[in-house]
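Reopening this one. Same input as before:
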Amino acid sequence: MGVGSDEAIDALLRCFCVPGKDKILVCPPTYGMYSVSAQVNDVGLVKVPLLPAPGFGIDIPAIRSALSGPEGSKIKMVYICSPGNPTGSLIPKEDVKQILEHETWNGVGVLDEAYIDFAPEGSSLAEWVAEWPNLVVMQTLSKAFGLAGIRLGVAFTSPPIAILLNNLKAPYNISTPTSAIAAQGLQGEGLEVMRGNRARIIVQRRRLLDELPKVNGVGRFRGGETSNFLLVEVLDKAGKPDNITALKVYEKLADNRGVVVRFRGNEHGCVGCLRVTVGTENEVTRFLKEVAEVIEEVR
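Same output, byte for byte:
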C-alpha cells in the first residue's frame, strides 16, 4: 500500500530502472504521472500511441516490436491504463496477456486499474498476479470509493516484487486515520455505499451518452464507456473537431459558469476533445444546460 497509486508508480521506477540508462514504455494518450515520474527519476520514455479512436486499444504489434528491438532490453516496464485516462477504454485481457508472454522480453507489466470499479464485473486482472510473476496491478480508493483525500493506493503483485516495494517505502507512510477510514470503506456498509454511488453514476453516464450528442456543437464520443468520465468532441462552425473551440468552451465553463471539465485536445488522437466527469443527477442536469449555452456563445 502507498500514498495513492502515484507512490507505486514512482516506487516501481526506483526499484527496476537505472537512471540515465533504462526506459519504460507508455501508450499515449494516458495518465500523465507515468511520464512525470520517469522524468523525475531520469528514466527514458518509449511511446507507442494507442490505436485510433474510438477504440483506443493498445497497439500490440508495435509494443511487441519495441520489446523485441535493439532497445528492448532497456525497457524494464510497460505501463498500461485500463480503463484508460482520458480514453475510458478497457484494454482486452488477451492484449495484456500477449505482453506478459513476450518470448524474449524480461520486464514487468504494470496495469493501472484506478477506474476499474466503473467497468463491467470481472474486468479486473488483479487475480492474475497469482499466475503472472511479472505483473503489477494498481488500484485506488480515490475514485469509486470517493476517498481521494485519504491518499491510499494499492499494488497487487507477486511476493518477490511486493517485498522489494515494501523495502523501498518510507516508515509509517500510511497513517492511522487513513488505515481506519480505508478499513471502514472496505467493510460491508462501506462497500454498499460505494456500490450505490457507482450505480447512480452509471445511470448518469448513460444519460450523458444519450443526451450530450443532442447539444448543438457536440460531436462524437471518442473513447470507451467503462469509466466515470466520457471523452467527447466539440465542433467548430464547419462541424469539425476543433481545439480552439474546445479550449474556449473549457475556459468559459470554468471561469464564468463554475463547471470544470478537462481539455484534452493536445493529446494524441484527441483533437477538439473534452473529458467530462459523470456527476450527480443535478450536476449532469446543470452541465447539459451550461455546455449548450457556452458552445452557442463561442461558435
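So the earlier flakiness isn't reproducible anymore. For the record, The chain has nine helices and ten strands.
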